[in-house]
Amino acid sequence: MNETIKRLYHTAGKDSRIILGLMSGTSMDGLDLALCRFEGFGRDSKVQVLAYDCMPYEDAYLEALRPVAFQENAPLSEVCRLNKFIAQTHAKMLKACLQSWKVDPEDIDLMASHGQTVMHIPANDPVTDPVGHSTLQLGDGDLLSVHTGIICLSDFRQKHIAAGGQGAPLVSYGDYLLFAEPENPVVLLNIGGIANLTYIPAEAGFGDVMATDTGPGNRMMDAFIRSRMEDVFFDEDGRLAAAGELHQTLLDALSDDPFFAAPYPKTTGPELFNLDYLLRAMDKSNCRYLSTEDVLATLSALTANSISHEILKLPLAESPLFYVSGGGAKNKFLLSKIERLTGYKTMSTEEKNIPPDAKEAVLFALLANETIAGDMGALGPGSTNMPAISMGKISFPY
C-alpha cells in the first residue's frame, strides 16, 4: 500500500486530528488560517481552535489577481498561471504562519484549502443555461501539498454542484454540525464580500437546514472606499457610513436587480455585486455627486435590507439564537441596522469559541474532517441544496 494512503488511513482512525483550514474569500483582503483540533465527526464533532491568523496579501499578489478574478474576459493564459501562483503564495504564507506559531508541519494531519474563487455562475434558467451551476476556485492542491508536506483537501465546491447543489454556501454543513440546538432555532449570518445565512430549525434533521446567499456584504463598500480614499481599505466599525445620509434614489437603483426578489435558496457573487454595479446605479440615479459617507450609508442600507429581507422570510415562531461572523461582524453600524430591521439581537460566534474572522476557515477544516473520518450517510438523505456528501479532492505530498 502507498505509504501516504497508510498515513491517511491512520489519520482517519485517530481519536483526534489536527487540521489547518485555509480560506480566501471574495473580499480578497488576506488568507485566513485556522489551526484546529477535531474529535469525533458528524453531530458528535468537537473542535478547538488552537491558533488563528489573517495574513494580508501583498500588493503584487493583488495586482496579479484582480485582472482575472470575476472578469468575464480574463485571458486563459493568466487563469492557468494564477492557479499555480495562488498555491505558491498560499504555501509561503502558510509556512511563515506555522513558523510564527512554532508549529511543525509534520504535526499537522491535514489541511483544507478553499482556494480563491475567481468565477461563480449560478444558473437560474435550465433552458438558456443547460450546463447548470458552475464555479471555479484557483490554488492547486497538489502544489500546496508538495510544497508543505501536508496532505491537502481542496476544490470543495465541485462535489456540491455534482450532487445537485449550487456550490455555495458551504459553511452551512459546519453550521449544522457545530451550532444546531435541540430546543432553539438558530440563524448564522456570515458577512464577507457576499453575505450568506444558514437557518437551522429547533430539533432539525440535516435535510431541514436551509442555506442561501442574501446579496452583497462588504465587497462593494470596500471597493468604493478604495476608489475614493488612499490607503483606506474598509469602513472601520461603519463610522463613515454612520456619518452619512441614506439616499433613497440610489438605494432604489441598487435594489433593482432580479436577484433580490428571487426565492431562496439562491447564490451570487462579485460577478454581479461589484464596483461597476454601484457605478451604474449611481449613473442611473444621477448620484455621482454624493459624498463618500452618503454612498457608504446607502450601501450599508442595501446590505442590511437584503439580509433582513431573507431573515424575515424564515418560518421563525420564536426569536432565534442569531450568530454573526465574517468581516461584517465588526461593523457596528451595519449590525445595528440589521437588528433594528429584524428585531433580533445578534451575537458573535465567539460565544461558541469560534472567532468570527476564523469561522469559514474552521468550517472548511471541518469539511475535511468529515471527508476523512465522517459518515455522511448517517446524516440522512439531505436536500437539493444540502446534499449529504463528502467534499474535497485529496492531494498527497509525494
Write a short abstract of this structure:
By secondary structure, this protein is α/β, with parallel strands linked by helices.
What would your notes on this structure say?
The chain folds into 2 domains: 203 residues, Nucleotidyltransferase, domain 5 (2-Layer Sandwich); 181 residues, Nucleotidyltransferase, domain 5 (2-Layer Sandwich), CATH 3.30.420.40. The model has no long low-confidence stretch (mean pLDDT 94). The protein is of the alpha/beta class. The two termini are 14 Å apart. The strands form 2 sheets. Strands 1, 2, 3, 4, 5, 6 and 12 form a 7-stranded mixed sheet that branches. It has 14 helices and 12 strands. The chain is globular, with a radius of gyration of 20 Å.
Number of DSSP helical runs: 14
Q: Tell me the structural class.
A: alpha/beta
Q: How many distinct beta strands?
A: 12
> CATH superfamily assignment of the largest domain?
ATPase, nucleotide binding domain
Average pLDDT taken over every residue = 94
User: β content, as a range?
Assistant: 15-25%
Q: C-alpha Rg, in Å?
A: 20 Å
Which CATH first-tier class of the largest domain would you pick?
A: Alpha Beta
Largest sheet: 7 strands, mixed
Question: How many domains make up the 3D coordinates?
Answer: 2
